[in-house]
Amino acid sequence: MLLAAAILRDFRRSTAARLGAAFAVGTAAYAVSSATGFRPSAWTLPIVALSAGNNVVFWLLASALFDDGFRLRWWHGALWLTLIIAGTADCLLPGSRQAGPSGLLSLGLVLSSLGFAALAIGLTLSSWRSDLVEGRRRMRLFVVAASSAYIGLTALFQLLGTFRGNDAWGSTVGATGLLAIAGAVAWSVLGLGRGQSLFLVEVAPNVSPVIEPPPTAALEKSEAEAVDPRLVARLQQAMTVDRVARQDGLTIADLAQRLGLPEYRLRRLINQALGYRNFNAFLNHYRIAEVKAALSDPAQAEVPVLTLALDSGFSSLGPFNRAFKAETGITPSEFRRLALEKGGVSGISRSILESASHPSNAAGGNLPAH
Asked: How far apart are CA 356 and CA 286, in angstroms?
């Protein structure tokens, strides 16, 4: 509960922070509802409800923390409400507090816990390599893996009928595990470091997300001076002159090898000098800038959008369309029509090429360094 209050105090404008606070409250509710001697009643229904929906909140929290493009949708709330209704009904059913699952509803709830834990782990691991925020990279494996392991093991114990609320030993072990995880999460989140933050503030579409600054707002001077302008120039040349973003399946390890830099230094350079939090977003900026220029060129008016997308480095049309619309707010075909109506290679394409050539103008380049 203290962790939830501290997060809301410092980062309340961030969707991820609000979900983090909700997960902390839900975990506290679970600790109470799974304790020895707890009995559902009219007075304790809010605790039961918060506990029942916490697996959905955990999955949403992992999504918000590690996917900078995440947005809450109406169906997320509907899913959370469904779990709350199902979990509350299960607790009030006769025999629900007996050892082992009580019927199909209990079995479904246990399996849903495993499912949401698996989704969170998969999301965490799949995007780990492209994460450029050092503090977030360090903490994501522990925070999500430990929390997922706790939810998954608890669900397995419940499925086997060996860990229910009336098991004093199991309840004590569970509470101890929660305390250890909560302490580690609190240390990681609240002591992440000056100038760093896990949390982004959700903004309107087509506007770069804003990083919620921690209470110690400014970067330390030594960190700000650590960025080498010569390395930034080499990186910009590789992206705008050599056009390495065209390489299919380009990874941060590939780019680091090309520049002769350790991977951790390149990650820090892109994050601190250009403001990007994700390597794929960094690549997509240059790829989309190239496609925008081609779409604005009357000489390429008959070239299919798919060809332009593949030539720029995208592997298929679907991811390209999503990335393009996320950055521009319109489809590639609509962009081409509007650009050509203005007379081919117009001011719109020139401004795009300029933004790709100057790190301070790159998408996300106006963000704080972390």
From this structure: 6
